[in-house]
Amino acid sequence: MKTNAESGSFHEKMERTGTKSDLRLSATECVGTVDISEKGSFEIIRKGNDIWAKPDSAFAEGMNSALGENAFSTEKWTHGTSSNALMAKLASWCHQEQLSAPDTLDAGSKAAKGKVTTVDGQQAVPVVLTEKGESVTWYVAATGKPYFIKQDSTRDDMQDLTDSDFGGAVGAKAPSGVVVEAPVA
User: Fold this and answer.
1) Which residue has the higher pLDDT, 107 or 173?
2) What's the pLDDT tens digit per position in 53-74?
3) Is 177 exposed, middle or buried (0-12, 13-18, 19+ CB in 10 A)?
4) Which of the pair, 113 or 102, is modelled with greater confidence?
5) How far apart are the C-alpha atoms of 170 and 10, rounded to whole Å?
6) What are phi and psi of 33, to 5 degrees?
7) CA torsion sign, 31 to 35 to 36 to 38?
8) pLDDT value of position 74
9) Residue 87, class by beta-carbon neighbours within 10 Å (0-12 exposed, 13-18 middle, 19+ buried)?
10) pLDDT-based confidence at 159, cuts 50/70/90?
11) Cα four-point dihedral sign 46, 52, 54, 58
């Protein structure tokens, strides 16, 4: 994952039970969508300290009910900064810490390296960690830079990930249209 961070940016697709996201990430930018089963979805843009979110109707209804006010609308972008707890929570889906402090295996980790395989048309080396009947497999690019390109997990607390488009522009910019300020949560 350190090599991914060193690329400066990448495209990440995440899926776990009831949740999906499709995000372009860098240390200072994030653009994409998050879909939470039965709660709805939202678009997210983060550029520096500024965060914008635009929900679908189900997500807006749930947020407005929880807040006790009509702060979110499908017609408007809601804006705040990372100092606003509500906006910071929405932006946490961007988990940009993986660019500033990427995960690494510690010396005590037991990992088994598998044989080269193909993942989404790319040659990759699987690295498997197994513990207590559960496993996670990380696929690392076999050619070029050793980018982490996929994670498959049987653990309930871990998601499946696919990373691609390393070093590409994220393209975050303030949205056009009506923008309202986020409520203080």
Assistant:
1) 173
2) 999 999 999 999 988 888 889 9
3) exposed
4) 113
5) 8
6) -130, 150
7) positive
8) 93
9) buried
10) confident
11) positive
Token readout for 130 is 């197994």
> What are residue 14's DSSP bridge partners?
21, 161
The 3-class SS string of the chain reads CHHHHHHCEEEEEEEECCEEEEEEEECCEEEEEEEECCCEEEEEEEECCEEEEEECHHHHHHHHHHHCCCCCCCCCEEEEECCCHHHHHHHHHHCCHHHHCCCCCCCCCCEEECCCEEECCEEEEEEEEEECCEEEEEEEECCCCCCEEEEEECCCCCCEEEEECCCCCCCCCCCCCCEEECCCC
Tell me the per-residue pLDDT of 33-50, one tens digit each, with 9 for 90 and over: 999 998 999 999 999 999
Name the residue with tokens 């997500």: 59
At position 25, the amino acid (one-letter code) is: L
Cα(44)–Cα(72) distance, integer angstroms? 13
